[in-house]
Design brief:
six-stranded mixed β-sheet; six-stranded parallel β-sheet; about 35% helix
């Protein structure tokens, strides 16, 4: 028992730097274990913890959290990626276009810098599988914070076309304009989630999460040659991915997107914190 206790306290001490992931719900996130493992791999005494904040408490809770002296940063997940942008003192280039953030970090001078990395992670997940968005016909489901970041990142990869579907028509139309800012040559439009003439299907909506355990598109079969990606991390094998695998499609998991963005996000959080050298 003594040996186990000694190992347990080695994970955290009074010197440990703290980061949090803020969302509602929060049970589905896999970031705490993945980021904490990467901090440890780099020799950083830091942990990422889940923080469940209800929407009605966000404005009162977050300013207080940012006053915690040993807090190095926050990650934002559903539904706060757009709302959290008001907490930042400075925005990175992707966040400026997208209008949302998923990472907030101290800049070493007491100010908070922000960026969004979902799109970077998605493109990197495809790259690691040897897949490209260049000249591909893409259907994106969801135009929220994650969907916007993914669309903007994909636009830099020069797809042939991009159709965006979201229940909020105004939000989808706003994302079309953002994609055109990146590359006006892309054939981008809003529309129904039709699979005809589509090479890549991307789900960036919350449908498929633990509380929304269903497919985000009502079809019984998917074309076998379709590449299907789901940004939902938990459950890992979402209803959409299960359907796609049953149809013989190539599937890319939300966990792969998370791995694709971890390195960039840990770099973002790794300024010279008090008492630590940069990892």
């Amino acid at each position: 028992m003594a040996g186990r206790d000694a190992q347990a306290v080695e994970l955290v001490s009074g010197r440990t730097r703290v980061l949090g992931i803020v969302g509602d719900p929060i049970e589905q996130v896999r970031s705490p274990e993945m980021f904490t493992a990467e901090f440890r791999r780099r020799g950083r005494d830091a942990v990422l913890v889940p923080i469940h904040v209800r929407p009605g408490d966000f404005d009162a809770c977050l300013p207080g959290l940012l006053r915690i002296a040993n807090l190095d940063g926050l990650i934002f997940t559903i539904p706060y990626k757009a709302r959290a942008i008001g907490l930042a003192d400075t925005l990175g280039p992707s966040a400026q276009i997208v209008g949302a953030i998923n990472a907030l970090a101290r800049d070493g001078q007491g100010r908070w810098k922000a960026e969004i990395f979902d799109g970077i992670g998605c493109v990197e997940a495809f790259r690691r599988r040897g897949l490209s968005f260049a000249r591909r016909r893409v259907l994106l489901l969801g135009a929220g914070g994650a969907g916007s970041a993914i669309a903007v990142a994909i636009a830099s990869e020069h797809p042939r076309s991009l159709r965006i579907h979201d229940p909020d028509a105004a939000r989808a139309a706003a994302l079309v304009a953002k994609v055109r800012q990146v590359d006006a040559r892309i054939d981008v439009e809003t529309g129904e989630p039709l699979l005809a003439d589509i090479d890549v299907l991307l789900n960036a909506s919350p449908v498929g999460m633990l509380s929304e355990a269903r497919t985000p598109i009502e079809v019984a079969r998917l074309p076998r040659d379709l590449v299907v990606f789901d940004a939902v991390v938990s459950p890992e094998r979402t209803p959409l991915l299960a359907l796609a695998e049953g149809c013989g499609c190539t599937t890319i998991y939300g966990r792969e997107m998370m791995r694709g963005q971890i390195d960039a996000m840990v770099d973002f959080f790794s300024y010279a914190a008090p008492g630590q050298s940069r990892a």
